[in-house]
Write a structure and sequence with these properties.
about 130 residues; mainly alpha; about 80% helix
C-alpha cells in the first residue's frame, strides 16, 4: 500500500516542477523556455491532473489506513502508475503540437488510462466490500 505514498510524492514533485516551468515560461521568461512550452493550457491541465492524482493516492492510503483495511497491491501499483502517466500525457502534448497525430502516444494514452481504471476500480471494489 505504501506505493500509493511513493506515487503521490512523485506526482507532487511533478506538480511543483510544472508550476516552476510555467512560472518561468510566462512570468519570468527565460530565452528558449517560452518556446519550449508550445501549449500552455495543456501544461495547466497536467499541473491540475498531478494535483488530483496525488490527492487521490493520499486519500486512498489514508482511508484504508484509518479503516484498518489493506488495499490490493496490484490496484495500488495501477493507481500509482496510472496516476503518474495520465498527467504526463498532458506534459508531452504541451511540448508537441502534433501529439494526437502520433500512434505511439495514442497507445501510451490507452495503456495509461487502462492502468488508472484498473487501480481505481480495484480500490473502489475493496472499499465497497469493506462497507458491506
Amino acid at each position: 500500500m505504501e506505493v500509493l505514498l511513493l506515487g503521490a510524492v512523485a506526482m507532487i514533485t511533478m506538480l511543483i516542477s510544472t508550476a516552476w516551468l510555467m512560472t518561468f515560461a510566462k512570468w519570468f521568461p527565460l530565452p528558449g523556455v517560452d518556446d519550449f512550452v508550445v501549449d500552455y493550457k495543456t501544461m495547466i491541465r497536467a499541473h491540475v491532473d498531478y494535483a488530483l492524482m496525488a490527492l487521490f493516492s493520499l486519500g486512498f492510503y489514508a482511508a484504508a489506513k484509518s479503516a484498518g483495511l489493506e488495499l490490493p497491491i496490484v490496484a495500488c501499483w495501477a493507481v500509482a502508475i496510472g496516476g503518474f502517466t495520465n498527467p504526463t500525457i498532458f506534459i508531452i502534448a504541451a511540448f508537441d503540437t502534433e501529439f494526437w497525430d502520433k500512434i505511439i502516444w495514442k497507445i501510451f494514452s490507452a495503456i495509461s488510462f487502462a492502468f488508472t481504471t484498473v487501480g481505481f476500480v480495484g480500490i473502489g471494489f475493496t472499499f465497497l466490500q469493506f462497507a458491506w
